[in-house]
Amino acid sequence: MNMRVLSIIFCAMLSLNTAVAQKSSLQEHAEQALNNSKPIEARYTYIRAFEDYAGKGQMKQAVECGTKATTLYYKENLYKEAFELLRRIEQTIIASQVDAAKKSALFYQTAKERYNMYTKLHKGASAKEQLNIMEAHAQKSNDDEVKNDLLYNQAIYYYTMGQTQQGNAVFKVMADKLTASKEYDKVDDVYKSLIASGRRSGSANMVAQSYSSYMAWKDSTNAIKVADQINALKQQIADNEASIAEKDSSLTTRQVIIIGLGILAAALAAALAIGAIILLRFIMQTRRQKKTINMLNENNALKAKFISNISAQLEPTLQKLDSRQPEVKALKDFSEHIQTLSELENTMGEAVEMEDIQMQSFCEGIMDQIKSKVKTGVTLHVEAPKMSAKINKDYVSHILQHLLENAAEYVATGGKVTLEFKKRSAHTYQFLVTNTGEAIAEEKREDIFKPFLEIKDLTTGDGLGLPICKQMAVKMNGDLEVDPEFTKGTRFVLTLHDA
Fold first, then answer.
1. What whole-number distance in Å separates Cα of residue 70 and Cα of residue 115?
2. Which of 304, 346, 313 is nearest to 452 (CA)?
């Protein structure tokens, strides 16, 4: 989430009480590594900076570096390591010499990282539990900026969970607090941050609701500003009238003041006219933006339905063609893949059935299915413990078979294809499909999961296999990624959560 505005306010509050400490060389090194897209180096250096600051008793900087390292862990799905580091940070806070209120502000930051992780894992109940813990720490901290940050995260949670009314109420409290102190620019930045967060998360409802609230606040603020100007002018008129009463004996003075009042009255009329124009302009702009958002949502839905309908309408004709011809078979496969992808997108919110599966025999069975497609001299290896796990067998089988077939296709003679199953935590599992040989270029790792990025000869593949696998993984409350740390070939990681 974009917390730039709230972070600036928070730092400003602290600077009133303590001098701003310079960053250590370790923290600067970590930030430079992160800016140079070296997350592993940045994570390791942030941990060292955390230890260094904690040893010097600089707990605010220590927790800042520690939580940044935590973020870098869970961005790579290393949740176990992230939770362990948070526990270590909290033990350090407990042992520190800072007062109780400051400790609560520091514990708020660690609870916030847990909230972000549970949100990413789609664990709504756990995220709400951390939000309650954040609220308790925020109250004990007696820090208004921490409380504002809490309101912001509560609003994000409610909007993400589709609880629009609660999100509006919480966010209104924060906006009203800043508006009451006439910090209009800060409120403006906070609304823009909320809209940007909705766009990054792909929530059209959150963007629309945030934008609607933002424009309503903008309209009311402009009215307040105009009212302030009018009140100021009225005060000037009142002051001038008092001056007239005091200098009643001088006719010349009265004439001068009357002329001044006429000018002020003209200015007041001009201000009212300008205010009316501004209000009308924003009302029209709000209507246009709402119409644009609705039109975009409708267009996206129509495009998805249109693509799916085309594929379904082509199916009877394609069945009459000779599948022995490579071009016809490729076209049929392409049509089936489009229908599968559309069906997954349209049912993304629906729950999938889970069942207990014995992992060792399941993994060996999947590997057996690709033996006929493996080059001579290629070694196949399965590494799975004798345990069971709850999975959707159809989806997982489809994903693993596709990954293994790709691995077998791209591994050279003498190479190795491996399928592993690992339990990462009480409710988190991973399937790892690895092949030796050439690795996928870093700049292509994200694009391989996106459909329709390039025009291809369908006889060489339609590029929809991995996007379909990715959608299946997400629908199972999981994810499918390329392991960036594996350099001796290519490793795909399928992460699943059974709770």
1. 12
2. 304
